[in-house]
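Hello again,

I reread your note about wanting to compare the complex against the isolated chains. To keep things tidy I'm splitting this into two emails, and this first one only covers the full assembly. Below are the input lines as submitted, including protein chains and any nucleic acid or small-molecule components. They are followed by the predicted structure of everything together. The single-chain runs will come separately.
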Amino acid sequence: MATVSMTVNGKAVSGEIEGRTLLVQFLRETLGLTGTHVGCDTSQCGACVVHVDGEAVKACSALAASCEGAAVTTIEGMANADGSLGTIQKAFQDNHGLQCGFCTPGMVMSAADLLKNNPNPSETEIREYLEGNLCRCTGYHNIVKSIQAAAEAGA
Amino acid sequence: MYDFEYVKPGSVAEAVAALQSEDAMAISGGQTLLPTMKARLAQPTKLIDLSGMADMTGISVAADSVTIKGATRHVDVERSADLRGVFPALADLAGGIGDPAVRNRGTIGGSVANNDPAACYPAVCMATGATIHTNAKQVAADDFFQGMFDTALDEGELVTGVTFPIPQRANYQKFLQPASRFAMVGVFVAQYASGVRVGVTGASESGVFRWTEAEAALSANFSADAVPTAPSADGMIGDIHGSPEYRAHLVHVMTKRAVAAS
Amino acid sequence: MPKDTGIGAPVTRTEDVRFATGKGRYTDDFTCMGLHYAYFVRSPHAHAKVTGIDKSAAEAAPGVVAVYDGHQLTGDGVGNLICGWGITSKDGTPMNMGAWSALATNTVRYVGDAVAVVIAESLEAAKDAAELVDVTYEELPVVVTVADATAAGAPQIHPEAAGNQIYDWEIGDEAATDAALASAAKVVEMEITNNRLVPNPMEPRAAMAQYDAGQDHLTLHTTSQNPHVARLVLSAFYQIAPEHKLRVIAPDVGGGFGSKIYIYPEEIVCLWAARKAGVPVKWTADRTEAFITDAHGRDHVSTAKMGFDANNKIVGFKVDTQANLGAYMSLFSSSVPTYLYATLLSGQYNIENIHCNVKTYYTNTVPVDAYRGAGRPEACYLIERMMEKSAKELGVSPAELRRTNFIQEFPHQTPVIMAYDIGDFNATLDAAEAAADVAGFAARKAASEAAGKKRGIGYSCYIEACGIAPSKAVGSLGAGVGLWESAEVRVNPVGSVEVLTGSHSHGQGHETTFAQLVSDRLDLPMDSIKIVHGDTDTVQFGMGTYGSRSGAVGMSAIHKALDKVENKVKKIAAHVLEAAESDIVIEGGAVKVQGTDKQMLWHEVGLAAYTAHNLPDDMEPGLKEGAFYDPTNFTFPAGTYICEVEVDPDTGVTTVENFTAADDFGQVINPLIVGGQVHGGIAQGVGQAMLEHAVYDADGQLQAATYMDYTMPRADDLPMFKVSTHETFCPGNPLGIKGCGEAGAIGSPPALVNAVIDAIGTDDIQMPVTPQAVWKAIHG
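Full-complex prediction:
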């Protein structure tokens, strides 16, 4: 066991980990941040996307130990300070961009990463950017609309 | 996955030293290795993390070549303005690997060292006649890639960088395996004063290869119409997504498209 | 005009707040003191005898508290898994059901069949120990396809099923159908396969079992679409615990699509092991486990003949289907290729003579059961491919052939049980043609051809039977359960309303739509209404959510309970306000005497009911009413889907350029949610048609067992969809609802495949129409 320390959603945290502890396990099991989900074993589904030092990362394919000293943001850190839905989250609600909600945290985190790098993406750019995020409920139609709306709202 | 000791060295020298212990493995972005370890298909006792090491990251552009250090991430290659200015096809190739989150972690060194038969980087290495740098030697791409998942790397040796001669024109065309989105067939065409080189990934059971018939034809006449008929299907990969014949056909089509787009 | 939160209003979902902020709670998110983890030892062979299990090394491994095998399970009296719908073969014999133990004892029958379970302090410790369980197998020959199962000398999978046949069932009048085909001016024939699919809800299945020794009581958190059915089956058939000593909680569930209807071996084993080992036990499938244990869908091979008279009217339709049900009979598997399939073979058309023979077989593959649409996609695909092929052979347009044969008068009795109550098939076809700009297709095709591409357009006019289902009807057809729904409406003393429903939401948005019904009826704001579901200790009973039944059946039960609440509220108000009951109206958060200024605020009525200081003499205190609703007929959503594709002849790549859906779902409660259901269904249908295929090799190994090889639809595979609704109101339930959950998956595959066939000019192609398949079809 070793100790890892990082900042998660603005809060300094540390915990005991094994070498093999994945970032997603540290978040879910040690910190109880269960909004980050695990939907596959092969790094394809994107339900576990979080931001590490401001960049989208699949938390199922990153070792917790490698995030020593990093600033991590999860879905739990995406709401406004007053607890209301952040711009992207609100756009997903307004546009019915989620159904069962399981892929939603990863979708929101990927959308935020996209809009940071490309504030006015085209429909094609949005669809291509979501290559690493699977959704089985929405057919992506309303997810794309949600991200377009978030872009218009200046997310 | 099986447990292991995690080691984060500060330099290439420290990493190489750490790799000398038995069953130690290097991890760079981990985008291939971690899923493999999760499936319990690899069992290192010690994992040496190369990510973010100062002497392993960066892109430098010289007069006629570009050198990318081993732990440089795909996203950094994709977004390098310097690189895009002289060799846009390489930046585009990096920007098409995996998905955005994977590109934020995965590295050129990891891709080249792993030599997955469906990886993109080996195609550009072959098509440009790149030089692979390790902590111990420099190897021409033609000699480095030795078949699926097999390279000229010795035990405990690291890919520290790759130098690509800058072509006059180049383009990479990838036909996606529909499920994994890896290259089912990827063709990199690069034209130099000395001639044209064509690197093909995804297609062959022997891993990345140069399509020499196409190179000869295109060196004589660099046009899509000059691309020869499809190579033999013998030795091409056959799986649920494509037969050897289909892959051979796609090599032809993707080569034509790469020439037309370069 | 609808109220802004009433029936028909596009209300944004209340549940989205927790889902969008990461505060949803799915089964794997739950934990408890002393939690242990289960990991299953699974067969790597498709068919083998188990000649020995040596658990000793695993039992001694660090962190392990127990390693159990199937002999211990059956020794403790845990019952075999059952199929709950009995099908009778045409010779009058019952179906041949083979024994299925949650942990295999002497024989394993598919890759993934569980033979032992390790219970350990951590998941990794359980996995480490599982590798030490030494199972000795004696491999047996393998049956993968129906052709394998029926071959001479085929290996016998279950002793109960000679020749691997489960049943040989028929529906309709064979002699009359043969005669009609013999007299037909034209007979069109085709052979068609319906590819095997893996449902793939994004949340993998999971179960957490806790045993309270003091109360002798078990609690199961699980990924279920129907927790009460799970409790019933776990109690009545698997002898886990009597119902009053077993609580099943299905919390937030991340999609189901049918695959979470069934009670699987893992839940049974976790419950049994939690009591036996004396520790709470959690199991969560990894994705590969999901691929090899979640019930698969479809997998039919059929031959069909359709006869037409000289006026292009259909005179007869004859179908022979062989269905692969996998290694064991899953809970409702038997009903899927029979009553959920062949009863829909009349489609939207007036067909006097239909006959269908269905033979089902065991194979050494994952069990097959209902997956979104369940039987109806298979029927629709068969009919709608046949209509398009027939139109080409008859030299008429596909739309014209359909219009010629549409049922125009309702009710309409088909020759295959179903009595369609209402519909307007011309209306949805007209609407789809207009929205798809069919008139502009020729110009778009010319533009594609100028660019070296091929363009095609394909139709599908689907009908489905939903709102599953009238208990008496399904009972007469062999169902082991009734398919009513229950609801309870509680008005609290402060006026807030709780609705306890037996329906279960795993993405469908019931917390919003069901609340809209209450808001509409009682004119109350959404935030004073709570929808409670998914817990057998909280909700009275329920049959769960599948078969597009939550609106038509579940909401009808709420409607009935609301009738009773409204009735009592009016009685109380009439008494207190000294007015005639018939003058009382509920509006604006108050209960008023019409035409006067006399009123009670809504919460004052609630308080009056519970203080009981001033109620009519014969009235019980309280304001809580329950209802069970059992429909009298299925509902029949129908519509037209039109797909337009462009094909790259050099690579075989198909691009979906336009996808148009015009649906008749009856009353729409929330158009936002209905649109989302259609989008998702179409995506799954497009997935089946061009991407997804659960391919096995000859050894029974699933070749597409991860997302590296099973092609899930992604955002860039799909266009924006054009969807619209065109209502005829269902006369069979009080709300006029038909249901919308499955239509997209049912209607879309033939539209896409017909479009590809139109583009490439050959119908020698089967689903999925992958790039390779299309390229081969074009180039021979």
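For quick reference: DSSP finds 20 helices and 28 strands in chain C.

B.
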